[in-house]
Amino acid sequence: MTSSRIQARRAAIAAAGAAGFLAASLVPASAQQGQQPRIPDGWFKACSKQEDVDICNVQNITLADSGQLITGVSLIEIKGKVNRRVFQVSVPTGRLVPPGIGLQVDSGNTQKIDYVICFPDRCVAETPLNDELVNKFKRGTELTLTSVNFQNQKNPIKVSLNGFTAAFDGEPLQQSDLEDRQRQLQNYVTKNNEDFARKLKEEQDKAKAAGN
């Protein structure tokens, strides 16, 4: 592999990690009293400059109520000293590697995407991004991404393609918008953690009262 391709691969992985999944290394923050945080959803574009390349990442993030990443989708375009277009999917760890991730738009054929790297909190599958795939997303209504867990069970995740074209063809979010999404995600996770702790205490108090 040439040095330019290695740099492009590193840039793509960095895009999926740093500029990409805002929830990958989420650290809960204190939610404001009375605030009802709402998890951001849908497709959005984030762009950044890293060394000699410009990176734009059109992405969609699906989270569990706990804030854990369920599925992250990224369409990454790298321009500058190296030029590359990459489609990436991130899923939680504990996946069987050989099956890869199945990608299906509506009722079309399923395409296998191979894993390229695993981090402590997620595994990333990758394939070259081309106009054919982009056009499928623009024409489609729903994306199905299927990974296989360590128990050899398929885990299909549905992702709506509503809003994809506007995000792909539109302007990227400004830094303030990204920071706002990060803040909303943090507040959402914090509130869920607080709700869980409160319910757990209520159950413990009930158990103590029943034992008296």
Describe the protein:
The strands form two sheets. A six-stranded antiparallel β-sheet has the order 1-2-3-4-8-7. 27% of the residues are buried. The protein has one domain (3-165): Invasion associated locus B (IalB) protein (Immunoglobulin-like). It contains four helices and ten strands. Strand 5 (101-105) and strand 6 (111-113) form a beta hairpin. 33% of the residues lie in helices and 33% in strands. With 212 residues, the chain is of the alpha+beta class. Residues 14-40 have low confidence and may be disordered. The chain has helices spanning 3-20, 131-139, 164-169, 175-211, and strands at 43-50, 53-63, 69-80, 84-91, 101-105, 111-113, 115-118, 123-128, 142-148, 154-160. It is globular.
Describe how the helices and strands are arranged.
Elements: H1 3-20, E1 43-50, E2 53-63, E3 69-80, E4 84-91, E5 101-105, E6 111-113, E7 115-118, E8 123-128, H2 131-139, E9 142-148, E10 154-160, H3 164-169, H4 175-211
Antiparallel strand pairs: 1-2, 2-3, 3-4, 4-8, 5-6, 5-9, 7-8, 9-10
Beta-strand residue fraction:
25-35%
Reading side by side through the largest sheet, how are the strands ordered? 1-2-3-4-8-7
Major pleated sheet: 6 strands, antiparallel
Overall geometry comes to globular
What is the C-level CATH assignment?
Answer: Mainly Beta
Uncertain spans: 14-40
What is the rounded Rg?
Answer: 19 Å
CATH topology: Immunoglobulin-like
Structural category: alpha+beta
Going by CATH, the homologous superfamily would be: Invasion associated locus B (IalB) protein
Mean pLDDT: 77
Architecture, according to CATH?
Answer: Sandwich
Order of helices and strands: HEEEEEEEEHEEHH
Total domain units: 1
Number of strands: 10
Helix content: 25-40%
Structure annotation, total helices: 4
Distance between the termini: 70 Å
